Amino acid sequence: GKVLVSGANGFLAVWVVRAFLENGYSVRGAVRSADKGVHLSKIFNEYREKFEVVEVPDITKGRRCEGAFDEAVKGVDAIAHTASPYHFKADDPAELLEPAIKGTVGMLESARKCGTAVKRIVITSSTAAVVHDEPTPQTFTEADWDDQAVENVQRDGRNASNVHKYRASKTLAERAAWDFMKTHGSSLGWDLTVLNPPLILGPILHEVPSPSLLNTSALQMYNTYATPDFVSGGGCWVDVRDIALAHVLAVKKEAAGGERIIISREAFWWQDWLDATPEAAKSNPKYQKGKPGSQKDVIPPVSYDASKSVRILGIKYRDMEETARDVVRDYEERGW
Ligand code: NDP
After folding, report:
1. Alpha-carbon dihedral angle through residues 207, 268, 326, 194, given to the nearest 10 degrees
2. Which of 111, 116, 246, 281 is 20 to 30 A off residue 225, Cα-Cα?
3. Over the stretch 226-253, which tens digit does the pLDDT of each residue have?
């Protein structure tokens, strides 16, 4: 089979491309400009018969079809749509909402009008589209929706918090995808699977000239290890290699069609990562120790029920020791 992966040069997407190639698929990676494909062609050189790069300069604009991907979808059997802005720097919420929503709907439009062979589309949503702020600790499931962020952004616009702007972009994009399926479902040759990961962490394959240019989640991890200020917060996490493989399984498994699936290992405090790699600070004094053990018994405010991912996709999650070890090794190899 052949898969189109959008945003192919991103932190997650490079691992998604690799997972598809390792599982025997051919991959077409969509990037915004040709220069962003150079690193990809280099790292996937051994797969050069099976890997190609296409340029899609603006995912919010269509050409002959209403979507931007009308050329890119031709001849693929499946699509993994990962491209979407993930940062907390937008002043105008439209900076996040537009590419998130129009990119998603545009991809579906292109597949509907131009792609005849597509059998499964996987969209990378997020637990940002699931979680909502609650006064007491909660375990969220696929039945939860983050309408709170959407309401806040609709009410407050530019003055909404940057976290809510991002969360609203993911919620609205995912809702738009399910609405599209409701409208067109019976006439489509494919079905949709949506994956909802929390913070994605792990070693890096994409092109990163210096740590300060890391993507949002990997930068938080790096700052935890490499900046002296104590990092008190936390969240929930999944290893980038596990969520990448989840995209392959979501294409492969019939039963994943029509499903929204949380892909989460567990809740964490940043301190837990430092505690998981006690030898790191010994081998390089630049890596922090934080306050060892200080967060061990603090109850996390947010958890996710990931049982559906095990049931439907059969995911086996990496644990923190393995991910932490591989991340520190990655820093060391890069001289970070
Ligand atoms: P990256 O920033 O590393 O990658 C984002 C990708 O999307 C890049 O290829 C980027 O292209 C592309 N993109 C962003 N904005 C636009 C735009 N306006 N037009 C076209 N392409 C765009 O992020 P991640 O790999 O972390 O995120 C990938 C996906 O996973 C996103 O959908 C994100 O919401 C989701 N996700 C990520 C989590 C995480 O912790 N990392 C957690 C949960 C979900 P370019 O390089 O050209 O900017």
Report:
1. -50
2. 246
3. 998 888 899 999 999 999 999 999 999 9
Query: Model pTM?
Result: 0.98
State the Cα–Cα distance between residues 313 and 274, nearest whole angstrom. 30
Burial tier of 141 (Cβ tally within 10 Å: 0-12, 13-18, 19+) = middle
The ipTM of this complex is: 0.99
Is the distance from the beta carbon of residue 37 to the nearest atom of ligand 1 less than 6 Å? no
User: What are the chain's domains?
Assistant: 2-206+237-265+304-317 (3.40.50.720)
Per-residue DSSP letters for 269-318?
EHHHHHHH-HHHHHH-TTS---STTTTTTPPPSEEE--HHIIIII---PP
Across 100-117, b (16+ Cβ under 10 Å) vs e yields bbbbbbbbbbbbbebbee
* Pocket lining: 129 vs ligand 1, CB cutoff 6 Å: no
Helix segments in 126-161, DSSP class H: 147-156
148 three-state secondary structure: helix
